[in-house]
Predict the structure.
Amino acid sequence: MDSTPSNDLELLDKVINLAKRRGFIFPSSEIYGGFRSTYDYGPLGVNMLRNVKSAWWRDMVQMRVDVVGLDAAILGPPAVWAASGHLETFTDPLVDCRKCKERWREDKIDGVCPNCGSTEFTEARAFNLMFKTQAGPVEGEGATAYLRPETAQGMFTNFNNVVATTRKKPPFGIAQVGKSFRNEITPQNFVFRTREFEQMEMEYFVPPAEAEQWYRYWIDQRLNWYLGLGIPADKLRLHEHAPEDLSHYSRGTTDVEFAYPWGWDELEGIANRGDYDLTQHSNASGAKLEYFDQAANERYTPYVIEPAAGATRAMMAFLLAAYHEDVVEGETRTVLRLDWRLAPYQVAVLPLSRKPELESVSQEVLAILQPHFACDYDVTQSIGRRYRRQDEVGTPFCITVDFDSLEDRCVTVRDRDSTEQARVPIADLLADLRQRTGQD
Ligand code: ATP
């Protein structure tokens, strides 16, 4: 029986609480009272976040011959952000509540102050979201630098480097995963909107005539990526922006939206950016960011299709979708039904007792599995309690080593979702788990 919270805000509270209590996500600098809207990823969170990024990298780069990777600098000179349009237009409308003086992003509050309920605001002014800093010991304009607010520009400024070194020809993509920074006016909803976050972006360069086709292709691919990693279809939808809502660079944008506890909201955006970026950087830098098609003897500026996702935001969506409470043997348990590829630990090895003989066989099992799976090892408390602890953090398989194991060289494999148990020879364990995870 499933008794997962039906009140959505209760679900959000439960997930935030679990994330803190079990070491997924901690409020940053907590011993100093916290630092608003920054979070630290704990021992389990760092595993899961890496898994989200690895799953993305595997599908977007490793499994394709038409996409290569990049890891560009976070600090950049003003020239990049002038050309990209960020200095001019990467702004949100900032208003002050006339009554309580709180500041808000005008387009997110429907004319009512979320703090005091007042409807009296100052005129909206454009607030630039980029973090500005100084590079080097000298102050002044020459030393100004910005923290990137998106990873995308690195792919455009390196376009010629990548084409020259990889000999890729359109259609081809450059992918990057890394931190981005935005001085958000109202960071909110846990890690949904933070000032420091991680993105997973890919710029796919195509002949202009093929742009629409590839735009549709990537919308489809990206929606299927979330479905394939276990987000149910009724929690995902596509939202195509109306022409009047498009960003200045976009010829078409579709968001993959997720049913968050507060309603449908963006998980990822897929945009047809046309030739905006390469043209802007060509004009501003003097470098010709073009592709020369030898067969057609023709030089052109490719169009760009960009699937832009948030790694930290995606992790939150995976956690929310996976959270369940059900009843097993008359007892309510919390279970994260995470895809095994995303779970912080894929296997937990649990010796029934602390007896040295059992621990020694357990260490043997661990040595077999650790090169292939992220493993936890737990000897504390009763076995039932340990199963519940592993369910709560989404560990798909528990391996129990008991006294019979010493005689028959078999262990018990317990499945998180069905709670079914099977006796498996230690010699076959790796093959068994590979089969259960669909790797064989
Ligand atoms: P919004 O309109 O919600 O501010 P955006 O449309 O400007 O966001 P993009 O620039 O398209 O967002 O960024 C691509 C992806 O990066 C988003 O879909 C989201 O997953 C992630 N992202 C953007 N801003 C943040 C943030 N402040 N915190 C966490 N993730 C973010």
